[in-house]
Every structure is written in C-alpha cells, then in structure tokens.
Amino acid sequence: MTDSADKLRIDKWLWAARFFKTRSLSADAVESGKVTMSEVRIKPAKAIGVGDRLVIRLGQYHFDIEVLGLSNKRGGAPEAQKLYRETDESKARRAVIAEQNKALPLPTFKGRPTKRDRRDIEKFETRTKSASKNPWGDFE
After folding, report:
1. Mean of the per-residue pLDDT values for the chain?
2. pLDDT grade, residue 97 (50/70/90)?
3. Average pLDDT over residues 33-61
4. Which listed residue, of 9, 13, 112, 126, carries a Cα 20 to 30 Å from 103's Cα?
C-alpha cells in the first residue's frame, strides 16, 4: 500500500485511490482545478504525502479528504478506501445531494425516438427557429 518514497504524484494517487478511471482523467481534473490542496490549485506532478488534505470536485459531489497512505498501483475498492479518510461534513453533504437526486423524476423516454416522434421534434424545432427570428410570431 505504501510506496518506498514518502511522496507520490497526485495524478497517480488519485488514479490508485479510484477517484478517476484513468490517470489521464485524473491529470486533466487536477489541471482544470477540480482538485485543490489547502485551497490552492496544483499541477498533476505535485507530490503529495501522508497527512495532506485535498478537496476533489466530481460533478456536484465534493470530497474533502485526508491522505492516509500512498500507492501507485490501482487495486480494488477496499484497498483504495484505505488510502484516504473523508471528513464527516463531506459525507453529510454528499448524502444530502444524493437524497435530492433520488427525489428528482426519472426521464420517461425509452430508447430512440420513433418516426412520429422525430417528425414532432422537427416541427417543434422549425417553429422555435422561426419564432427566434421573428419574436412577435404571427402578430406583425
């Protein structure tokens, strides 16, 4: 679980901790500012160590974690969860968001639109395009 060195690149660690499916996705997330250390943007080559605090934003979810271990090998989920500890506030915020998402209605469409549906969509699009060109519609 621990590396021979005391430090490890953050993009490798995020990949090994299973926050991202690929290392390039983790590097892109770090580069775009979705991962911060001590509220400061970092680069993918930044070395992290045990005890560092990270904030990881994945969509609407925010993970506030402390690094407990280092690993540059991607293992199973139980091993990955031993690499960090999430704060109680972060867990509570994510649980609230998950409950709100469960309350949202599910989409009702099933697969591809039928020929009739496609025609209705095309009619709607042509009406909205003509309305956007002429905001008064037929009232000129």
Report:
1. 88
2. very high
3. 93
4. 112
Q: Which domain holds residue 71?
A: 8-90
Residue 84 neighbours by CB under 8 Å, 6+ apart: 17, 54, 65, 66, 67, 68, 69
What is the CATH number for 85?
A: 3.10.290.10
What's the confidence (pLDDT) of residue 4? 47
Q: Residue-wise over 37-64: b if at least 16 C-beta within 10 A, else e?
A: beeeebebebebeeebebbbeeeeeebb
Local structure of residue 11 (DSSP, 8 states): H
CA 105 to chain centre: 21
Cα–Cα distance between 15 and 102 in angstroms, integer? 28
| Total of domains in the chain | 1
Predicted TM-score (pTM) of this structure: 0.70
Q: In this model, does residue 120 exceed pLDDT 80?
A: yes
Residue with the two structure tokens 């999430």: 86
